[in-house]
Design a protein that fits this description.
Blueprint lengths: L4 H6 L6 H14 L7 H5 L2 E3 L10 E7 L2 H13 L17 E12 H18 L11 H12 L14 E8 L1 H10 L18 E4 L2 H5 L13 E3 L2 E3 L13 E10 L3 E4 L6 H9 L5 E5 H5 L3 E5 L5 E12 L1 H17 L8 H14 L9 H10 L9 H10 L9 H13 L7
Parallel strand pairs: 9-10
Antiparallel strand pairs: 1-2, 2-3, 3-12, 4-8, 5-11, 6-7, 8-12, 10-11
Helix pairs in contact: 4-6, 11-12
């Protein structure tokens, strides 16, 4: 029946009662959500047998999402962005912004049935007990605020009786494909991050947190030694990792049920995991925001309590690239005889972005970050040894071994006044 439906669409039968009946029968047979596009699903690919977290054969389709859905999720990205550097970035800078390029909805009938079945079991076990995320998940808070001005929901409805929420999961392109097709695999937990709270599916309410686990530097993060807004160790000496601009985040439908809250510095991961697997709790909220000023993490220990609803491809926008745009604008004003220093707006933008760019070193940059800035405006030193060291010394007017935002703005303005313009 599924394979025959595409023929009906291509034969001009759309809207005919016979085709509508076939769609209804397929939806009922496969227990598909009411808002799934049957035409998209029926054109999907058949996956034979169980694999990964998927226990049986499935049909998988990726449905390209319209602009209003992209805009809604972009709003979630923007609203949950936080300028906090943690050890999991492995020395890579925090992007200034995340710009969504494409959103695809995942239509996987077998993974959906497994999720729906386990969500119903949680609902039965809760017996009407009210459950919620303390102070609300940031993603859900944003959507709640949006409803005050736009009462029509854009994303599919959730079941709040089981504490169901939209949460992020950062990943790579290959892993996003694997999860969409074969569900989450708990045996791979910790392959791209630590397992502070045990082997589970780590979810986030902030896009910035999930971005740490996307495309880019990998490897052990090391022990935590943290203070507010920062997790040590500092980035390693030497050039920072190569910038990776494109990455992926999954927006997941997550059944959180009854949550176990912890703000312990070193939680008992085995105990947390056992309590959830035994049914005493359904998920854990690890509050690193309260303890260290970083982020809260939400962990589920059953792969069938998280459904990867959307695959999001996005671009990271970095400080030095925005800096090049502003430097170019100032260069043009200098050539026109209209340069009187950066405008108040340019200063605000540069200072705001600097707080992110310099965050790994507490608001200051090292010579390798300076090299990125000079390269962005076509003014790299002749070599990365003596010339770079000399340039860094010139910028470091306070002679403390670092460049702060005041030294940066002063030297940048002087370069424009000296006629050192932007070369593309």
């Amino acid at each position: 029946k599924r394979c025959a439906l595409p023929l009906g669409y291509h034969s001009g039968l759309a809207g005919r009662p016979e085709l509508a009946d076939a769609e209804a029968q397929l939806r009922d047979l496969k227990q598909l959500p009411a808002d799934w596009s049957i035409s998209s699903f029926s054109a999907g690919r058949f996956l034979e047998g169980g694999l990964g977290g998927r226990t049986d054969s499935a049909v998988i389709a990726f449905e390209h999402q319209p602009q209003h859905v992209v805009d809604e999720i972009q709003g979630m990205f923007d609203a949950t962005y936080r300028k906090v550097y943690t050890r999991d970035r492995r020395g890579a800078p925090i992007p200034d912004r995340f710009v969504i390029k494409e959103v695809q909805r995942v239509l996987n009938d077998q993974v959906w049935r497994e999720y729906s079945k386990n969500r119903a079991e949680v609902k039965t076990r809760l017996k009407g007990e009210a459950c919620s995320v303390p102070e609300g998940a940031h993603t859900m808070n944003y959507l709640g605020e949006r409803r005050t001005t736009n009462p029509t929901p854009v994303l599919p409805p959730l079941d709040h009786t089981v504490n169901e929420a939209w949460l992020f999961h950062g990943t790579t392109r290959a892993a996003a494909q694997g999860i969409a097709e074969n569900d989450f695999r708990l045996d791979l937990t910790g392959s791209n991050a630590g397992t502070l709270y045990g082997k589970g599916i780590y979810l986030a309410e902030n896009a910035t947190k999930s971005d740490e686990y996307g495309e880019g530097p990998k490897g052990p993060a090391g022990e935590e030694q943290m203070e507010a807004g920062y997790e040590a160790p500092r980035p390693p000496p030497g050039p920072p990792p190569e910038l990776v601009r494109e990455s992926y985040i999954l927006l997941c439908r997550s059944t959180l049920g009854k949550m176990r809250y912890t703000d312990e510095a070193k939680p008992d991961a085995d105990d947390l995991q056992k309590r959830c697997l035994k049914g005493e709790y359904d998920s854990v909220l690890g509050d690193r925001l309260k303890r260290h000023g970083t982020f809260r993490e939400l962990i589920v220990y059953h792969d069938d309590l998280v459904y990867p609803e959307y695959v999001i491809r996005y671009e990271r926008v970095f400080f030095h690239e925005r800096f090049a745009e502003i430097y170019s604008q100032m260069s043009k004003r200098k050539q026109q005889g209209k340069f009187n220093g950066p405008t108040p707006e340019e200063k605000d933008v540069l200072a705001s972005m600097w707080s992110v760019y310099g965050m790994p070193n507490r608001g200051k940059i090292n010579k390798w970050q300076l090299l990125d800035l000079l390269t962005a405006i076509g003014q790299p030193p002749q070599n990365e040894a003596e010339d770079l060291d000399q340039t860094f010394t010139e910028w470091d007017s306070k002679k403390d071994g670092w460049i702060d935002v005041d030294e940066f703005l002063q030297e940048m303005t002087q370069r424009i006044n000296d006629g050192i313009i932007y070369y593309q």
